[in-house]
Amino acid sequence: MTTTNAEVRPYAVRVPQSELDDLHARLERTRFAPAAPGDSWDYGTPESYLRDMVERWKDFDWRAVEDSINAHPGFVTEIDGQDIHFLHVRSSVEGATPLLLAHTYPGSVLDYLDLIGPLTDPVAHGGRPEDAFHLVIPSMPGLGFSAPVTEPWTIARVAGAYDTLMRRLGYDAYGIHGSDAGALVAREMAVVEPAGFLGAHVLHLFAFPTGAPGEMDGFGEKEYAALGHLQWFQSVGGYNQMNGTRPQTVAAGLADSPVAALAYSELFESFGNGTSLVRPEQVLAQVSLYWLTNTYASAVRYHFEEQRAEREPVVSRGRLGVAVFKDDFQTIRAFAERDNAGIEHWSEHPRGGHFAAMEVPEDLAADLRVFFA
C-alpha cells in the first residue's frame, strides 16, 4: 500500500560543484561527429552550431541560473508516490487569480521565469491590479527538480497530480496555462473539468486532419499554409517516434553525453529554420538543467507511455483559450473546434514561436490577462 506525505517542504536549487566540474571536463573532451555535406540543419543539428554552443557552454554561469530560480519560493511535495518540485509565487494583490503554468518538453520551470513579474505584479508591467495571478509552476513529474519517475506516468496522471497540488496549496478554484507537453496537460484539465476549474489557456491544441470527407471544405490560403508548416514540423521533429519506441536507448546517450543532449534539444532552435527567438543562453540553461538533474530518461518515456495508454479520443468541454504564435506550427481552428467544444478565446500573434514564454513573454502575459479577465 502506498502512503502519501502531504507535507510541503522548502526547496532551493544547489548543484554540487563536483557535478559542474564533471560537466566542464566532459565538454573539454567532446568528440564531434564529422559534419554532414554543407553542414546544414537539413541533416539535423550541424557540427558548426554544436562547436559554437560548446564553447559558450564552457563559460556558462549555472550559478546565475540557480539564483534566478531561487529568487522565487521553491518547494517539494509528494503526490501519488512522486516527489514534485514547484515554484509558488503569490501576488501581493488581494484576490489574484490562481494559475498553474505547465511547462514544455524539452523545457522546464525555466520556461516561465520571465512571466513571473508581469503576471504577479501587472501594474509594474503595464497591466491592472485585477490582472494579477498567484502562480504555481511545477517541474513535470520525473523532469528537472522533481524526482525521476519509477512508474509509468501519463498526461492524465500528471493532470491529476497538478489538481491535487493546487488543492493542497489551498486553491479551490484555479486556471492553467500550458505549451507543448504542458498544453496536453492543460487540455486534459479541460476534459476532466475538476471542481473550480477556471479554464485552460494553451499555445497548442493537437488537432489534425482525419481524412473525413469535407473536413477541409472552406479552407483557404491560410489553412493550407498551416497544414504545410505542420507537415514540415512533423517531418523534422522525430521525437515522438524515437522516444515512443526506444526511450531507454535514447536516454542512454542523453544521460552520458552533454553534447548529445544539446543536439537533441534542436526544437529550441525550431530545427534551424531561422525563426526561433530563443537565445543561446536560454538553450544552455535548459540543457544544463536536464543534464545536472539526469532526468532525460523520465522525460523521453512520456511519449512511450502515451502511445500505450488505453484511451479513446474524447472531446473536451471545459473552457479553453488558444494563442497561436506566428512561427510555431499552427493549430487549425476548424480541427481544434471539432475536438474541443469549449473554446471561448482565440488569438493570433505576429511574432514568437513554439517557446513563446521565453521568446515574447510580454505578448503571452497580455493574452493570459485577456482570457482570464
Principal-axes shape call: globular
| Mean of pLDDT | 95
Low-confidence stretches: none
- Indicate the CATH topology: Rossmann fold
CATH homologous superfamily name?
Answer: Alpha/Beta hydrolase fold, catalytic domain
Proportion in helices? 40-55%
Task: Give a short overview.
This protein has 373 residues and is α/β, with parallel strands linked by helices.
Structural summary, described in words:
This protein has 373 residues and is of the alpha/beta class. The chain has one domain (15-28, 42-208, 218-372): Alpha/Beta hydrolase fold, catalytic domain (Rossmann fold, 3-Layer(aba) Sandwich), CATH 3.40.50. Helix content is 42%, strand content 14%. The protein contains 15 helices and nine strands. The protein has helices at 17-28, 47-58, 62-70, 113-120, 155-168, 181-192, 221-236, 239-245, 247-256, 258-264, 280-293, 296-308, 333-339, 356-359, 361-372; strands spanning 8-10, 74-79, 82-89, 97-102, 133-138, 174-178, 197-202, 320-325, 343-349. A nine-stranded mixed beta sheet has the order 1-2-3-5-4-6-7-8-9, with helices on both faces. α13 (333-339) links the parallel β8 (320-325) and β9 (343-349). The N and C termini lie far apart (43 Å).
